[in-house]
């Protein structure tokens, strides 16, 4: 039985207010960045100055519009290449990385092996008490190690290959848009619509980004295509800035290889046996029926045993395993366990 004091409610209200404050502040910053004309103009300063310079040097409308297109493509290209490389790398690790090329049981074997090698009691208790968090941490470490070890032989070549493929698709879209306009006697508006539609599956890129950009007088589509080909080489040089540090930093969090693998391995049941803290092996979270595990652990990992309540939610069948792993753990860390649970082994 618990008694909730006034301090608890005070701290709860403060915590809720702090979360709400952060959310509102973040939303305000995003709204302002998207709608404040001063911020918008500041961000566009270099782009507009570059256009002004080219007009002063007598550049044609097709040349200027081609360069604007490539400027607008820069960020979507980088996002697409990083995202595609992350997916390719995730698939490679699912095949080639020994700890990640099987199911959750296989991954757990590698986790247990690593724990034995490190002989760190605190890490063991984190694994026993918070298995999902420990799995996530282990996966992140494995991915980080793999990226570092395989960077030059696998990660960087994948990045360069994806850049080349995207370059080819962009130029193909530009060429086919030129042909489409010529066949249909269209204008630059038709060219732009065709170009953006062909790239919509690859890039977050639409006609809307060109609102406010004057291009009505563009009529030399072959020249426009050639300008894009020339400028595209410069903006796709992102592999030169690519490193083990920038790769995860430039990726959207949910597309990082470690997060993709965590989603793959950790979308399952994590309910622990109330007797020994073995984790249910059902692959569906919030599944119907009793929880179960093929092997249970030795006495002492949870501190004590009782019955009733949540114990009825488990189907525990006898197993003939001799539990050498967990016997070793209890023998090795007996004093640590007694101190942790403030109890003694009989």
Automatic annotation (TrEMBL):
- Source organism (scientific name): Cirrhinus mrigala (Mrigala)
Kindly list the organism's lineage: Eukaryota, Metazoa, Chordata, Craniata, Vertebrata
Entries under PANTHER family matching the protein: INTERFERON-INDUCED VERY LARGE GTPASE 1-RELATED, URG4-RELATED
Please identify the protein, giving its name as recorded: Interferon-induced very large GTPase 1
């Amino acid at each position: 039985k618990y008694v909730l004091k006034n301090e608890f409610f005070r701290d709860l209200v403060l915590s809720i207010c702090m979360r709400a404050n952060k959310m509102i502040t973040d939303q305000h910053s995003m709204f302002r960045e998207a709608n404040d004309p001063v911020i918008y103009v500041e961000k566009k300063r270099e782009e507009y100055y570059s256009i002004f310079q080219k007009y002063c040097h007598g550049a044609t409308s097709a040349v200027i519009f081609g360069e604007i297109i490539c400027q607008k493509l820069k960020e979507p290209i980088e996002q697409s290449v990083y995202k595609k490389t992350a997916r390719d790398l995730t698939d490679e690790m699912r095949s080639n990385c020994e700890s990640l090329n099987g199911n959750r049981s296989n991954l757990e074997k590698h986790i247990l092996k690593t724990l034995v090698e490190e002989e760190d009691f605190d890490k063991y208790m984190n694994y026993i008490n918070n298995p999902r968090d420990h799995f996530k941490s282990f996966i992140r470490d494995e991915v980080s190690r793999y990226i570092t070890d395989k960077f030059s032989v696998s990660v960087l070549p994948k990045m360069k290959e994806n850049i080349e493929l995207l370059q080819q698709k962009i130029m193909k879209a530009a060429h086919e848009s030129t042909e489409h306009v010529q066949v249909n006697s269209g204008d630059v508006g038709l060219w732009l619509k065709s170009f953006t539609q062909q790239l919509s599956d690859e890039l977050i890129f639409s006609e809307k980004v060109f609102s406010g950009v004057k291009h009505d007088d563009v009529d030399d589509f072959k020249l426009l295509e050639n300008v894009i080909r020339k400028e595209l080489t410069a903006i796709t040089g992102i592999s030169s800035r690519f490193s083990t540090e920038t790769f995860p930093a430039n990726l959207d969090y949910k597309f990082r290889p470690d997060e993709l693998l965590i989603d793959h391995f950790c979308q399952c049941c994590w309910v622990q046996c109330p007797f020994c803290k073995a984790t249910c092996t059902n692959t569906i979270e919030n599944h119907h029926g009793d929880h179960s595990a093929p092997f249970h652990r030795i006495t002492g990992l949870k501190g004590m045993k009782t019955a009733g309540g949540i114990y009825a939610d488990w189907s525990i069948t006898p197993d003939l395993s001799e539990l050498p792993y967990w016997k070793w753990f209890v023998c090795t860390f007996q004093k640590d366990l007694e101190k942790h649970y403030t109890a003694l082994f009989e």
